[in-house]
Amino acid sequence: MALNLRQTVTDFLKINPEERFTARELACWMFENLREACEEKRRNSQQDLSDDAALLQQLVAEIGANRPEIQKRWPQVRTTETRPRRYYWTTASEAAEVAKVEGLAPIVQGKLTDSALSEHDLYPLLCRFLHVEQGLYPKRIDEKRSTNRHGPNGNKWLYPDLVAMEDIGAEWDREIRACVQQAGAQRARLWSFEVKLLVNRSNVREVWFQAVSNSSWANFGYLVAADIQESAMKELRLLAASYGIGLIRLNTEDPSESEILIPARERPDIDWDACNRLAIENADFRDFISWVRQFHQTDNAKVGNWDLPEAVD
Description:
Elements: H1 5-14, E1 21-22, H2 23-33, H3 35-44, H4 52-73, E2 77-79, E3 86-89, H5 94-102, H6 119-133, E4 136-140, E5 162-167, H7 174-183, E6 188-199, H8 204-214, E7 220-228, H9 233-243, E8 246-249, E9 259-262, H10 272-281, H11 283-298
Parallel strand pairs: 6-7, 7-8
Antiparallel strand pairs: 1-3, 2-3, 4-5, 5-6, 8-9
């Protein structure tokens, strides 16, 4: 019998609602459970599929190639933007998916699990990625340490979730560092991060402009998410081109495997008036600015109680 790949993928996802599978996992299931159809495909192929690995790889490639048509015909089939991309069947609206996740929906790197992961659980994972992989010195900004003069939701448009300092001369020769310090040239860049569990077509503009608002003072601004739905990526790229905010996919299983999907566009100057407002109204941000000042005075980035991973200087 012939293998109807589109129908097979859709039927399998439909009987496993909300579970997420990579194309390779789907291909392996076909190979194990639809062996006769797979063997017919092997015989009829003009390619050399005599090796099982080659047949599996061909199935993986065809699942990816058929994805747009599958999603056009069955809108309940959705995919993540994570690599490898994961496929799943859901009848929930994208707004309902956001509400579920923000209500502590179980999610680990695009997979539903038994243990819930909150947005706050993402902060130390992001700190590890920023410090170990990017060489930044991160600091969590707790909006609860603010004067809260802006109403119940005002702070979410004012304070980022994390900030960071970059020592841009970390690899410079000692004499170059001293010369730059004496000349008063730029020695650090400041970064801002807005963190979300899920970004999809339903909430993409809201979370993007929240990141724009919260990072207006910094050299670099980023939106960070553990789960980025493919349905949002076109809009994210358009918004990035217009506003310069970057996008990071945070790998919750292995932060070192996180990806900068869209690099942020650098702003050459810090908005110190905006920094002043944040420092006056939030103790964490004031500490951050104090540590940046001490870095410029001492040429030592380790001054300050940065939110560094355990056992990492």
